[in-house]
Amino acid sequence: MKISVLQVGPIGTNCYLLEDESTNAAAVIDPGGEGARILDRAKADGVEIKLILLTHAHFDHTGGVDELCKALPGVPVYLHPADAQLLGTQVFPAIGVDTVPYGEGDTLTLGSLTISVLHTPGHTPGGVCLQVEDALFTGDTLFQGSMGRTDFPGGSYEQLMASLKRLGQLPGDYHVLPGHMGASTLETERKTNYYMREAMA
């Protein structure tokens, strides 16, 4: 497994290219813009994009979807239905393509990799985290030392705290790969993240 990260779009959202080195299959997680750059990185890495995975439907995580889909016809775009039904409203702009629903307990196959979906609402109703081996893509649920905002339409502080508690109670440790800011580890966040500590108290 190889993970590449690009900061894309107007506010430098972390877009991840999850690559299965045994099959050269790749998934794009949160293409927030600059679809051409993402395609160039995939080409440079010698991988074929098979999946587009959205942790939630805010514009800074979906802005590159249309460009990618035009270049990659037939590649599915996954989004939790609670966010999909909000597309075209306020902070959830239409993305120009139909999405495939995924949610709690679902798994996706990428080459030899298995991607597990955890529904973690709070930042948005349909926010998800994606777990692959020892990596946890947390979108805007969990940040290094912080958490996502809850003051946008569809946000809920109570739900986000419940989601943070759930992440904190996962067994073992993971590399935390958030939608913004730098990477961390789950154990570091358990010990030092004020919001996660509050959630787990």
Walk me through the structure.
With 201 residues, this protein is an alpha/beta fold. It has a single domain (2-200), classed as Metallo-beta-lactamase, Chain A. The protein is 26% helix and 31% strand. It is built from seven helices and 14 strands. It has helices at residues 35-45, 59-62, 65-71, 81-84, 157-168, 186-192, 194-200, and strands at residues 2-8, 13-20, 25-29, 48-53, 77-79, 100-101, 107-110, 113-119, 128-132, 135-139, 142-143, 146-147, 175-178, 184-185. Strands 1-2-3-4-5-6 form a six-stranded mixed beta sheet. A six-stranded mixed beta sheet has the order 7-8-9-10-13-14. The chain has a two-stranded antiparallel sheet with strand order 11-12. A hairpin with a 5-residue loop joins strand 13 and strand 14. The longest helix is centred in the last third of the chain and has 12 residues, at 157-168. It is globular and about 45 Å long. The N and C termini lie far apart (35 Å). 45% of the residues are buried.
Which short descriptors sum up this protein?
single chain; alpha/beta; six-stranded mixed β-sheet
The gist of it:
The protein is α/β, with parallel strands linked by helices. Helix content is 26%, strand content 31%.
